[in-house]
Specification:
The chain has about 300 residues and is an all-alpha fold. It is built from 14 helices and 2 strands; from the N terminus they run E-E-H-H-H-H-H-H-H-H-H-H-H-H-H-H. Helix 1 runs antiparallel to helix 14, helix 4 packs antiparallel against helix 5 and helix 4 packs antiparallel against helix 8. The longest helix is centred in the middle third of the chain and has 28 residues.
Amino acid sequence: MSSVAVKHPNGKLARLDGVDALRALAIFFVLMNHVNMRLLLAKVPYTNGLPEQLVSSLVWNGQPGVQIFFAVSGFLITSMSLRRWGSLSGISLRGFYLMRFARIAPLLIALLATLSLLHFLHLHDFVVSSKTGGLGRALLAALTFHVNVLEARRGYLPGNWDILWSLSVEEMFYLFFPVMSRLFGRGKLFVAILLVFVLLGPFARVVFPHGNEVWREYSYLGGMDAIALGCLTALLVSRIHFSRVMLWSLGSIGIALLSLVLCFSNQVERLRLTQFGVDMTLLAVGTCLVIAVVAQTN
């Protein structure tokens, strides 16, 4: 997904570097998390002697990285929709779905074709086991955006398939986003619906999984609070211009929340924020505050 662009006084479009930086941070954390797991499986003691919190911050922030990406995604999609159609109520359903298809389908199909070939070649760590339903079931889940549901019910797919759980959450949200925008985009009900998603996020991570650890991390509602917050941020910055003092305040709070969750996870757990599922919500709020500042200062 390309970064949202803003117009300079000379009429040219420019990328929001701060948004790109947040997305780069999210990608870094996800990649480091997967590299870390591979090294641990290979029994490489590369973290020996390092402080526990440093290790946690560098290589165990994969889930927070995805949460940051969800917030960025919600902001970008909503901003681009407002720029393209003028208002959410004016969204073209056909145009929106074609836009999403063009962005997602080519790479997704190429990825699935590659993974299927590696499965048929019986390469280690690429074979989808019969326990999870085999290759056909994995393909169906990927193409209909319920890899997260499959893994919650039957166990993890190979790591190269497992990453598609986040796409399942994101695209399920955007499946209904344009319809809800057309129906409720003119009034306050749309904002209320987004706030409901935000409120349900912690419950989806703690209460609704009923002890299913996969669903605790991979559930639809567990990630949609961040997407909804990103949408709300795009609506807010399109309607309200904050003063410089307010922007400094919002930015400071946002950076503080990001730093708290990403750099002081042990303290976050001691405060029981993780236990109640609000740590990821705070992370998304911090991300959105930074995005709001970036959007109004370029």
